[in-house]
Amino acid sequence: xxxxxxxxxxxxxxxxxxxxxxxxxxxxxxxxxxxxxxxxxxxxxxxxxxxxxxxxxxxxxxxxxxxxxxxxxxxxxxxxxxxxxxxxxxxxxxxxxxxxxxxxxxxxxxxxxxxxxxxxxxxxxxxxxxxxxxxxxxxxxxxxxxxxxxxxxxxxxxxxxxxxxxxxxxxxxxxxxxxxxxxxxxxxxxxxxxxxxxxxxxxxxxxxxxxxxxxxxxxxxxxxxxxxxxxxxxxxxxxxxxxxxxxxxxxxxxxxxxxxxxxxxxxxxxxxxxxxxxxxxxxxxxxxxxxxxxxxxxxxxxxxxxxxxxxxxxxxxxxxxxxxxxxxxxxxxxxxxxxxxxxxxxxxxxxxxxxxxxxxxxxxxxxxxxxxxxxxxxxxxxxxxxxxxxxxxxxxxxxxxxxx
Length: 404
Fold this sequence. Notes:
Elements: E1 14-19, E2 22-28, E3 39-45, H1 71-80, E4 86-92, H2 100-104, E5 113-117, E6 138-140, E7 161-163, E8 184-186, E9 207-209, E10 230-232, E11 253-255, E12 276-278, E13 299-301, E14 322-324, E15 345-347, H3 361-372, E16 376-379, E17 387-391, E18 397-402
Parallel strand pairs: 3-4, 4-5, 5-6, 6-7, 7-8, 8-9, 9-10, 10-11, 11-12, 12-13, 13-14, 14-15, 15-16
Antiparallel strand pairs: 1-2, 16-18, 17-18
């Protein structure tokens, strides 16, 4: 940036900074201006102890609070830079910021705002002023107390990311289906029992998180989201999945943990693009041989189930790098487990019956080799002459290291 572009504006405290060698960001508390400024990022940081602003600069990230980042400064920025169209407002604070809700109610006229990040601010309702922010692309409202989203949310046609996790939602509005540019929707830790049919229109969706809700069946519109790469259905009440889920051929990550599955839903074996599958904390006792078709699987979590033997198809998943078998009822490991040559992490802890069961020399040698590279966690007293005991977070003991 040359000196020709530098001028002091003490009246507004505006400063421009350069990104990638091209000046286009406004800063408050500095000394530079350029008339083609188009974007500004405003981040509000607060001291967690007393929710008071720590600093008051306005730059690539605004380090300030409600007191320092006022609407007057935002208004001044718009007046000085008419082309301003990319404003990001972010609050980083574990406490509720005093006066924030009043400020939010006045944002309607600032259509240059493209991102709002307002977690854990005690919002009991969705601020209607947000629905007028027609250029909004990212909206993060996790950890509030919102009980409903307004139909007018459908006016946010440019929205790509929406996070309303950790609220009190019992339903999502049908108008959400008009946000056809949405690629990420996070609505975990609410009280949802289904989804509106209009969700099926969100064909660009890549990430959908519905963990910790009240789902007893898979909402039908999900199977229409054929671009989905990540689907989180953990901590629900699912007992099976429909055959139609096989349509999600782009799916790479699927979380079904903490549901009510007693058998693996058959259509899962058709999701051959899966690289990560979490089936932990269900009631599984075996896995079908057809699961061997998931040849791309690199991470498989089977913790807290009821396996007494290692399911046969697992040893055919030769791309596996992480395998979690914690807290099952395994007694003996087959020699064939050594076929998992790509394995980088194996957790066998809390399989208490492995303690008294003698493994084959081949399995013992394989486990010892893994542990030498810190790749395996074994039950207490397994190979006792090679173990170091360490208390885990649940008050139990597991082996952390083995030595030659």
